[in-house]
Amino acid sequence: MIKTPNVEIDSIIHYFCQVISESNIFMTDNEDIQGQTGEEIRMPDITYKPGYNKLDSFNWLKDLPETPEINDIIEIRFKNTRKGFFRNVNGLRLEIGDVVAVEASPGHDIGRVSMVGHLVEEQLKRLKAHPSADDLKKVYRKAKAVDIQKWEEAKKLETPTMLRSRKISEELRLNMKIGDVEYQGDKTKAIFYYIADERVDFRQLIKVLADEFRVRIEMRQIGARQEAGRIGGIGSCGRELCCATHITNFISVTTTHAKYQELSLNPQKLAGQCSKLKCCLNFELDCYVDAQRSFPPRDVPLEALDCTAYFQKLEVHKGLYWYSTDQHSNANLIALPVQRVREIQAINRKGKKVEKLKLVDESWEITPVSQDLLKNNSLTRFDPPENKTQPGKNSNKRKNRRFNDKRNK
Question: Which residues is 370 bridged to in the sheet?
Fold first, then answer.
């Protein structure tokens, strides 16, 4: 047996370790994304967090049994509010939150699964969309580590690209605003979202952007509401913007909606983050319109023996009309219920005047009382009643007394 000194063994081990490190013998997916210095780049956190995404949907049909045909079409979510339907041609078992690589033109894109199963059919019915198999693009595979790393690198380029493109548009003196930039997952294409009041000739801009960023350029015009939904923010109510959480179709809002709800026509209070009228003015409009259908007209003054009252304001849900004796002032306001206003107008149409607008024995001001539903209830109201006297113990006591009496005798 040949004995070799420890120094030679250490040098041999060091030599083989250096050879292995320089070669690609043990190449894995994670080593494909190492930097030039040899330090491995950490993978980003791609954990799906429900409720943290724009236009997130709750799968209320997830407990229904699945069939093989039900997962043929899935919904993929990309940056911000951009979504699309794709065909699962490879029969992949996908769940909500999975990162997948899908077909794009050109190349491929990276997105996250946002809807699967029976909920996709309901979504297609709601959108009144009946896509054919040829119209939908394909889902290639679940994203690999290399795909995710390139996707993250593309997302880091979006903000500098947007700032640089804004300066270029200013240099070209184009009347437009570039609000957002979205890179494709393989960094071969970039979508520029812009806002413009007039038609813009951006042919020269596309040439400059293509030479500057070396990618394929696509320009998409959006409105102010769509821009607010893509960027997101906090509204005056303290909650996240509705256009970034659940609103998908934008309905026109006018000042008439505010008049129906008896809101002050203050543009600073009625405007949202997009400088347009708030979308939430539509939420309760139907309720106010239905409540006012049976209300008497407002522009008719009320004639009384002592005065003439003019309409000033209305409290819809309380059913109160407020009148004043001065047409151009809110002094000496009188609150009258809808039924009383209807009666006075019927009397005035006959050519008569009422003695008083408000009857003496009527009190229309009702003090609000908070109703506590659990005021007279207890947390233990559903517990079975406890028996204070147990029959077993009493019978034993009686038996013991009889036995002791007989024994003493």
Answer: none
276 vs 2, 186, 224, 242, CA distance in Å?
88, 36, 8, 14
Contacts 24+ apart (CB under 8 A), 339-344: 340/364, 341/296, 341/302, 342/296, 344/302, 344/303, 344/304
Closest listed residue to residue 89, CA positions, set 134, 123, 120, 129: 134
Sketch the domain layout of the chain as residue ranges: 68-143, 294-365
Cα 283 to Cα 158: distance, rounded to the nearest angstrom: 35
> CA-to-CA distance for 309 and 298, rounded, in angstroms?
11
Q: Which residues of 316-348 are buried (b: 16+ CB within 10 A; e: fewer)?
A: beebbbebbbeeeeeeeebbbebebbeebeeeb
Please give the helix or strand (H or E) that residue 216 lies within, else none.
Answer: strand 216-221
| C-alpha angle 26-33-149 in degrees, rounded to nearest 5 | 140
Got the DSSP string for 308-331?
Answer: EEEEEEEETTTTEEEEESSTT---
Q: What is the pTM of this model?
A: 0.65
Chain segment 226-235, per-residue pLDDT in tens: 888 888 888 8
Query: Identity (one letter) of the amino acid at 265?
Result: L
CA distance 336 to 303: 14
Q: Taking Cα atoms as reference points, which of 241, 246, 203, 243 lies closest to residue 223?
A: 243
Q: ∠ at Cα 405 (400, 409), nearest 5°? A: 150
**Which 8-state DSSP code applies to residue 252?**
P
Cα 272 from Cα 270, distance rounded (Å): 7
CA dist., res. 180 & res. 222, Å (int): 10
Q: 77 burial class (0-12, 13-18, 19+ CB within 10 angstroms)?
A: buried
| Tokens encoding 271 | 């405007």
pLDDT over threshold 90, residue 211: yes
Q: What pLDDT, in 10s, does the model give residues 245-297? A: 888 778 888 888 998 888 888 888 899 888 899 999 999 899 999 988 889 99
Cα separation, 48 vs 51, whole angstroms: 9
Would you call 69 helix, strand, or coil by DSSP?
Answer: helix
